[in-house]
């Protein structure tokens, strides 16, 4: 049976700007000057001096007692690179601030357990995201961290197939001791906890563990959709093999199908137009820490605005956000942190390899969630270049092989000359001419028309558009930066989208204002961003509504009734 000990709560931390912690043996001899902190929380909010700090910070904690067993330390997100020690023994390192990791502890029983983590949030030209991305580079342990013990026979790579017919297929492996003598049992539970299908199998040997496969049929399954998010729970457990209670995994299951047909996106065979809003993980009080209550409140605000889609910009969000989207009935546009890649980066095989590995890790984590219908593989990259085309073609081929049941898109900055649209299922267009260029809103419709003329048989998603408004700045004349100007802008763009049936929908940028980058970029400086924020939110950073929220709510609800 799996045991979990949460490591949330009090830790000690110590910045290491001179990078002497490893040489001085901080993993064993904890440094003087440590200060208390609470995790998960980015270090930028622990001390004003660390607000824009980029470098290494160490974290320390003692676990006084630990039941005997085989233990791992596991985390959902440490930004951007973490190296871990237990009682001075190096456990491992992981890079990628938005994806899970785990390191095995070296002994079956260790108590007291002295944990040390060295975290480095610095980004570079080959990291994902690269340095210079247009959001704040929070640092530290920003999602759940725990100690986890598993039984000798452990489940690995559990997969399932759930077509609309109700056919159910469950596959996976059992690894570790006693895998040869165990059996695997599976049950599918409906929303009331009643079993609607059961099966069992004896795993058979293979090079990477004992494989198993189960299949059956669920009679007349309830289909998952935003209007009726019918969820099931798949419980898979290892039995026998000398264990009193074997390993158990529970997976969210939703019977649904998404595909593109001509200019339309079909959900369960029915056309659906996407009324979307983008979301960043950011709040003034907790930064990008994975707090379930804040995520739940954000998704409720999104649904109350009449939206049926959330674009999770521009990186894998906390895994519990997907659980919430499943239950609340919110479609998800999930993204890789492949943003603002230039031609040189896209020509680099190492960057492509990192993008492939990042998708594999995200797919491994989130593939069971019915809410995800779109994989966003690039955002505002050099997709007009030959290098960009080769990069995207290779990445899409890999993603389709992994996950043929979801649609692929990329968020391009131009309706003309993008060499990657030909590989996408849905044409994503980021367009801000009505804000940065002071162009007439009619240009949005013209851009959509040109894109449709070039690709008449593909659905289009206006994947990002918006206008800044300083919360509380009101103007009789609807001058730029006012709440009136932002509300008028959104009404005009929504009208351009709604009157074009070949446009499958849009994703407004964005739900709430958020902290901008702590550095000057080629595109923006802090002086161009009042309060050093992106102020395009329909809500301010504390989730207080601007006029645009009410305007979008009325228009989205009317659109839903069409």
Brief summary:
With 562 residues, this protein is α+β, with helices and mostly antiparallel strands. Helices cover 19% and strands 32% of the residues.
Task: Outline the secondary-structure elements.
Layout: E1 3-6, E2 9-15, E3 35-39, E4 56-63, E5 70-75, E6 78-79, E7 81-86, E8 89-95, E9 101-104, E10 113-120, E11 140-141, E12 145-150, E13 154-161, E14 167-175, E15 182-189, E16 195-201, E17 210-217, E18 232-240, E19 248-253, E20 258-261, E21 264-267, E22 270-272, E23 274-279, H1 292-304, E24 309-312, H2 319-328, E25 331-335, H3 343-346, H4 349-366, E26 372-379, H5 386-402, E27 407-412, E28 426-430, H6 442-454, E29 460-465, H7 483-498, E30 503-508, E31 514-515, E32 533-534, H8 547-560
Parallel strand pairs: 23-24, 23-30, 24-25, 25-26, 26-27, 27-28, 28-29, 29-30
Antiparallel strand pairs: 1-12, 2-3, 2-4, 4-10, 5-9, 5-12, 6-11, 7-8, 7-10, 13-14, 14-17, 15-16, 15-18, 18-19, 20-21, 21-22, 31-32
Helix pairs in contact: 1-2, 4-5, 6-7, 7-8
What this model shows, in words?
This protein has 562 residues and is of the alpha+beta class. The chain folds into 3 domains: 3-150, Sandwich (Jelly Rolls); 154-253, Immunoglobulin-like, CATH 2.60.40; 271-560, Alpha-Beta Barrel (TIM Barrel), CATH 3.20.20. 19% of the residues lie in helices and 32% in strands. The protein has 8 helices and 32 strands. The protein has helices at residues 292-304, 319-328, 343-346, 349-366, 386-402, 442-454, 483-498, 547-560; strands at residues 3-6, 9-15, 35-39, 56-63, 70-75, 78-79, 81-86, 89-95, 101-104, 113-120, 140-141, 145-150, 154-161, 167-175, 182-189, 195-201, 210-217, 232-240, 248-253, 258-261, 264-267, 270-272, 274-279, 309-312, 331-335, 372-379, 407-412, 426-430, 460-465, 503-508, 514-515, 533-534. The chain has an 8-stranded parallel β-barrel with strand order 23-24-25-26-27-28-29-30, surrounded by 6 helices. Strands 3-2-4-10-7-8 form a 6-stranded antiparallel β-sheet, with no helix packed on it. β21 and β22 form a beta hairpin. α1 runs parallel beside α2. The longest helix is centred in the middle third of the chain and has 18 residues, at 349-366. The protein starts with a strand and ends with a helix. The mean pLDDT is 93.
């Amino acid at each position: 049976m799996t045991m979990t000990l949460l490591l949330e709560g009090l830790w000690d931390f110590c910045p290491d700007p001179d990078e002497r912690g490893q040489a001085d043996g901080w993993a064993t001899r904890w440094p003087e000057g440590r200060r208390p902190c609470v995790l998960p929380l980015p270090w930028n909010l622990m001390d004003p001096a660390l607000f824009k700090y980029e470098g290494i910070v160490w974290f320390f904690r003692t676990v006084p007692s630990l039941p005997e067993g085989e233990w791992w330390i596991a985390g959902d997100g440490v930004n951007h690179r973490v190296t871990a020690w237990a009682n001075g023994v190096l456990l491992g390192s992981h890079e990628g601030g938005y994806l899970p990791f785990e390191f095995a502890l070296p002994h079956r029983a260790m108590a007291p357990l002295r944990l040390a983590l060295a975290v480095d949030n610095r980004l570079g030209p080959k990291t994902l995201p690269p340095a210079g991305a247009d959001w704040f580079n929070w640092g530290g342990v920003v999602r759940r961290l725990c100690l986890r013990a598993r039984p000798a026979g452990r489940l690995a790579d559990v997969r399932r197939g759930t077509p609309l017919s109700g056919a159910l297929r469950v596959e996976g492996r059992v690894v570790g001791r006693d895998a040869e003598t165990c059996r695997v049992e599976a049950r599918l539970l409906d929303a009331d906890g009643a079993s609607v299908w059961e099966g069992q199998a004896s795993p058979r040997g293979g090079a990477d563990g004992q494989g198993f496969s189960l299949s059956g049929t669920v009679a007349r399954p309830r289909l998952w959709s935003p209007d009726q998010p019918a969820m099931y729970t798949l419980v898979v457990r290892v039995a026998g093999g000398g264990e009193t209670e074997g390993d158990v995994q529970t997976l969210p299951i939703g019977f649904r199908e998404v595909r593109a047909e001509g200019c339309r996106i079909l959900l369960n065979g029915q056309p659906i137009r996407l009324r979307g809003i983008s979301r960043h993980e950011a709040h003034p009080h907790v930064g990008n820490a994975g707090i379930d209550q804040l995520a739940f409140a954000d998704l409720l605000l999104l649904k109350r605005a009449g939206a049926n889609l959330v674009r999770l910009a521009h990186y894998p969000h906390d895994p519990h956000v997907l659980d919430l989207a499943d239950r609340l009935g919110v479609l998800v546009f999930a993204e890789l942190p492949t943003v603002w890649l230039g031609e040189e980066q896209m020509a680099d095989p190492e960057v492509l390899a990192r993008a492939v590995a990042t998708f594999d890790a995200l797919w491994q984590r989130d593939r069971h969630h019915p809410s995800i219908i779109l994989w966003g593989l690039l955002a505002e990259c050099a997709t007009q270049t030959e290098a960009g085309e080769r990069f995207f073609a290779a990445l899409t081929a890999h993603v389709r092989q992994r996950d043929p049941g979801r649609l692929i898109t990329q968020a391009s900055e131009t309706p003309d000359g993008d060499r990657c649209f030909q590989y996408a299922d849905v044409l994503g267009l980021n367009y801000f001419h009505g804000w940065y260029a002071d162009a007439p809103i009619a240009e949005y419709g013209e851009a959509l028309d040109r894109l449709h003329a070039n690709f008449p048989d593909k659905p289009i998603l206006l994947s990002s558009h918006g206008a800044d408004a300083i919360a509380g700045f009101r103007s009789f004349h609807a001058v730029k930066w006012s709440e009136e100007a932002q509300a008028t802008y959104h009404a005009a763009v929504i009208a351009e989208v709604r009157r074009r049936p070949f446009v499958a929908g849009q994703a407004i940028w964005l739900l709430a204002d958020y902290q901008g980058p702590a550095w000057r970029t080629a595109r923006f400086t802090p002086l161009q961003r009042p309060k050093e924020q992106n102020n395009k939110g329909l809500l301010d950073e504390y989730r207080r509504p601007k006029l645009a929220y009410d305007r979008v709510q009325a228009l989205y609800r009317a659109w839903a009734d069409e």
